[in-house]
UniProtKB/TrEMBL annotation:
Keywords: Glycosyltransferase, Transferase. Pfam families: Glycos_trans_3N, Glycos_transf_3, PYNP_C. This is Thymidine phosphorylase. InterPro entries: Glycosyl_Trfase_fam3, Glycosyl_Trfase_fam3_N_dom, Glycosyl_Trfase_fam3_N_dom_sf, Nuc_phospho_transferase, PYNP-like_C_sf, PYNP_C, Pyrmidine_PPas_bac/euk, Pyrmidine_PPase_CS. Homodimer. Belongs to the thymidine/pyrimidine-nucleoside phosphorylase family. The lineage of its organism: Bacteria, Bacillati, Actinomycetota, Actinomycetes, Pseudonocardiales. Residues 398-423 are annotated as: Disordered. PANTHER family: THYMIDINE PHOSPHORYLASE. Residues 334-408 form the Pyrimidine nucleoside phosphorylase C-terminal domain. NCBIfam families: PRK05820.1 (NF004490), Y_phosphoryl (TIGR02644). The keyword Transferase applies.
Length: 423
């Protein structure tokens, strides 16, 4: 094989065959296909697309570039969830112990935040003592014990994706649906879960800004799962406004614990329960109602067990920001919109996120949305709270929030949280 032939074939709109795909991914991982060649191929894929069968094969080749985990011995069906990322999306925190409390084992290999979207590991690391890095033996032990693990993916899972994602990031080739779908699914297939529910976010705070694009990505993800023998379904959910009221690491942990205690914002509860139902149905225990496990405290008990199993103290005080400032409502009326992207950027500027992979995050930083879309405000009353340990970030955060709120004299027509389901 020659990299130039593979690039040329895709450049000219051709379909790559299995052998070409297997070769190019393996050779790229081994350093035999150069970065500039892979960059050209990624751009050709972005411009020309890939068929579902090419995408499925591309994914399989990326899975086979590294090792795969196998949780066949945990004695319970395994189910996982992946979100394409949003603002205030802390759903993994209540969902993982909830589904485990209902009888499935949840291996949730997660990431850190980059840019305006938060990362699950950054959130949990605000709990004193909690450890994201686990060995394969610890993951298997915790799946057999609490049945719930949220931890970092190790370097040896889908290394082709790791390399390719970094390349796409600097060559304007992230925004290709087949490449995004293959990237997400390669990590999930390597992780060895038996079933997967995808939460494809749609709206200003998400990768996919409109419903057609979100449907296309959801379809690509579900097709890859099916082609690789993984029970997969996908919900498309709204990310035009932040999920819940809390955006930022410790603030989101607090909100997740509220949900586990039977309270919390209705949108977070609704999505948690809905995703739990999907996961339990895939795991063959669809007759168990997750709403009961949330109401009677079993999910909260499981949360404590899961946090302790990774060295954390579930009773410890979470970090609090040294500096809190209020953003007031500019006028009176109904809050008809709160732009997720702008709120995400504000939280990021306050210190909740990182600009470079190696940066540290501030655990206490973020934004609390005191008013949610649909609720009424009066001019000058508190709308948002800015939390940070670095007061010098406040002006930039305020600037990114300009125009984030939409206030109207008319009532807001309520928009559904769950926009579609693709299976
Ligand atoms: N998330 C991923 O894991 N990969 C992508 O390509 C985009 C988002």
């Amino acid at each position: 094989f020659s990299a130039v032939d593979v690039i040329r074939a895709k450049r000219d709109g051709g379909q790559l065959d299995d052998e070409q795909i297997d070769w190019v991914i393996a050779a790229y991982t081994a350093g035999e296909v150069a970065e500039e060649q892979m960059a050209a191929l990624a751009m050709a894929v972005l411009l020309r697309g890939m068929t579902p069968s090419e995408t499925a094969r591309w994914t399989k080749a990326m899975v086979e570039s590294g090792k795969t985990l196998d949780f066949g011995s945990v004695g319970r069906p395994t189910a996982d969830k992946h979100s394409t990322g949003g603002v205030g999306d802390k759903i993994t925190l209540p969902l993982t112990p909830l589904v485990a409390a209902c009888g499935a084992a949840v291996p949730q290999l997660s990431g850190r935040g980059l840019g305006h979207t938060g990362g699950t590991l950054d959130k949990l690391e605000s709990i004193p003592g909690w450890r994201a890095e686990l060995s394969d033996t610890e993951i298997a032990r915790n799946l057999r014990g609490p049945g719930a693990v949220v931890c970092a993916a190790t370097e040896d899972l889908a290394p082709a994706d790791r390399k390719l994602y970094a390349l796409r990031d600097v060559t304007a080739t992230v925004e290709s649906i087949p490449l995004i779908a293959a990237s997400i699914m390669s990590k999930k297939l390597a992780e060895g879960t038996e079933s997967l529910v995808l939460d494809v976010k749609c709206g200003s705070g998400a990768f996919m800004k409109d419903l057609d694009q979100a449907r296309e990505l959801a379809r690509a993800l579900v097709d890859i799962g099916a082609a690789n023998g993984l029970r997969t379904s996908s919900l498309i959910t709204d990310m035009s406004a932040p999920l819940g009221r809390a955006v930022g690491n410790a603030l989101e942990v607090d909100e997740a614990v509220e949900v586990l205690s039977g309270g919390g914002p209705p949108d977070v509860v609704e999505l948690t329960v809905r995703l739990a139902r999907e996961m339990l149905a895939h795991a063959g225990i669809g007759d168990v109602d997750p709403a009961d496990a949330l109401a009677d405290g079993r999910a909260h008990d499981k949360w404590r067990e899961m946090i302790r199993a990774q060295g954390g103290d579930p009773a410890a005080e979470l970090p609090r920001a040294q500096h809190v400032e209020v953003v007031s409502a500019p006028e009176s009326g109904t809050l008809t919109g709160l732009d997720a992207y702008r709120v995400g950027i504000a939280a990021w500027r306050l210190g909740a996120g990182r600009a470079r992979r190696e940066d540290a995050v501030q655990h206490a930083a973020g934004v609390r949305c005191l008013v949610k879309p649909g609720e009424r405000v009066t001019a000058g009353s508190p709308l948002l709270e800015l939390h940070t340990d670095s007061p010098d970030t406040i002006p930039a955060a305020r600037e990114s929030l300009e125009g984030a709120s939409e206030i109207s004299g008319a009532d807001r027509t309520s928009t559904p949280l769950i926009l579609d389901r693709i299976a």
